[in-house]
Design a protein that fits this description.
Residues 1-24 form the signal peptide. This protein has no helices and 34 strands. The protein is mostly beta strands.
């Protein structure tokens, strides 16, 4: 089913650290501007351009492969012959989003949206926030308790000048607006209904940043301006500053490891915040940038990219970084193939997964810091210079790895247990970003 929708602008505008009610008024967005480069090292450019260095939190979510399901699906398979899964996938394309059944890969809904759009899982197993124009829009995927099975944009949206990172942790979802430094926080499971209470905190200056609320109510957020980003600070539950570290040039991206160790990327290593203290772990190179990270609550090790050329138009690294938050060590692993900012993911038990330009998923043991297997999935590919252009993207839901193949409009599902592609389909449009919900 195809639905024609345009983004609505949120009317909430209270800029303080007090609860407020977000009520959405009807309106029309021109849909023309690029949204914040969630995976980039620069603030979003509303002209639709930008340069790449991402940190999408792949590996969070989704439904596993049905063990009794035959592994012989191909692009010609009719997904309507199979029982629908509770899990759903969401993929962007140039002109909208597709909502898919996570087991059959069949299209359940096609929602048209203008402009370049991005996807942000809310963390409640049902909703996805769509960065579009000047707002975060709420997509109800139609699955989960109380859902009616129909995917649709709801009437809840969040006003945002350059919508950026979205982070879910400890039952709170936190939005960061790069154009204003606005941080907006709400209970992750509170998106059902017409309104919800949110807390708004304003960063000192607008910048391409990120924030996360911790289990004790502390708020960790980046420090920066539109010209430079320098570090991280932590506020207590009353939003008084309790910790700060500005030894993190070019701060970008966030990932959570086991025991609530927060890893923040820098141009010369990473900052780790845990148990009220910051620890700096240096890169082995003077410029060793880690801007994209993928963490897992099952592992003390965080996966990061690793770039060493500050002057490159687009560096295509072949090494990844493994940050041990327990030992406070950083290890580099040579994969033997390049990758992009949409290549990093984690498995359900903390497995490190990297989608290479050689077309294979490289499975890496995070403790041994070595590649233990390779799973061929797509044809070899080249990373485009324009970060907004589609490239193969990886997303993990339970024990199933999903990989897009824009060159053939394909989507593949890989069983992590037997390391084989068990379902493939051809989509009606070229996929770009990919995420999912567990239902």
């Amino acid at each position: 089913m195809k639905t024609h929708r345009k983004p609505r602008k949120a009317t909430a505008g209270l800029l303080s650290a007090v609860p407020l009610l977000v009520l959405t008024a009807c309106g029309t967005d021109d849909g023309g501007g690029a949204t914040t480069d969630v995976a980039q090292d620069e603030p979003a450019d509303t002209s639709g351009t930008g340069d790449a260095d991402g940190d999408d939190d792949a590996g969070d979510g989704g439904s596993g492969h049905d063990a009794g399901h035959d592994a012989g699906h191909d692009a010609g398979h009719d997904p309507g012959h199979d029982e629908e899964s509770a899990s759903r996938l969401v993929a962007t394309y140039d002109g909208g989003v597709l909502v898919l059944d996570a087991q059959t890969l069949g299209v359940l809904e096609d929602i048209e949206l203008e402009g370049f759009i991005r996807l942000n899982p809310v963390g409640d197993g049902r909703h996805v926030l769509i960065s579009a124009g000047d707002a975060f829009l709420t997509l109800d995927t139609g699955t989960g308790p109380g859902a009616d099975g129909t995917a649709t944009l709801t009437d809840i949206s969040f006003e945002s000048d350059h919508p950026g990172h979205v982070v879910e942790h400890a039952g709170k979802t936190v939005l960061f607006s790069d154009g204003t430094g606005r941080v907006e926080i709400f209970d992750t499971d509170a998106l059902v209904g017409d309104a919800l209470e949110t807390e708004v905190y304003m960063a000192d200056d607008p910048h391409h940043g990120v924030a996360v609320e911790l289990e004790g109510g502390e708020l960790l957020l980046t420090i920066g301006t539109e010209e430079s980003r320098t570090g991280v600070k932590v506020l207590d539950a009353e939003r008084e500053e309790i910790a700060r570290n500005e030894d993190c040039p070019g701060v970008h991206g966030e990932a959570m490891a086991r025991d609530e160790a927060v890893v923040i990327g820098c141009e010369d290593g990473v900052l780790v915040y845990q148990d009220g203290e910051f620890t700096k772990i240096d890169s082995p190179d003077e410029y060793g940038r880690i801007g994209n990270q993928a963490g897992s609550s099952e592992s003390a090790v965080v996966l990061g990219d690793y770039k060493v050329d500050p002057d490159a138009e687009l560096e295509r690294p072949e090494r990844i970084s493994l940050i041990d938050t327990f030992m406070h060590e950083l290890t580099l692993v040579d994969i033997g193939t390049s990758y992009s900012f949409r290549s990093l993911a984690r498995g359900p038990h903390g497995e490190v997964l990297l989608l290479g330009t050689d077309g294979a998923i490289h499975v890496i043991d995070p403790d041994a810091a070595e590649v233990i297997s390779e799973i061929p999935v797509v044809e070899e590919w080249d990373e485009p210079l324009d970060w907004q252009q589609p490239r193969p993207t990886i997303f993990v839901e339970d024990h199933t790895i999903y990989v897009t193949e824009p060159a053939s409009n394909a989507l593949h599902a890989v069983d992590l247990h037997d390391e084989t592609v068990h379902t493939s389909t051809e989509l009606p449009a070229t996929p770009n970003e990919l995420t999912g919900v567990s239902g």
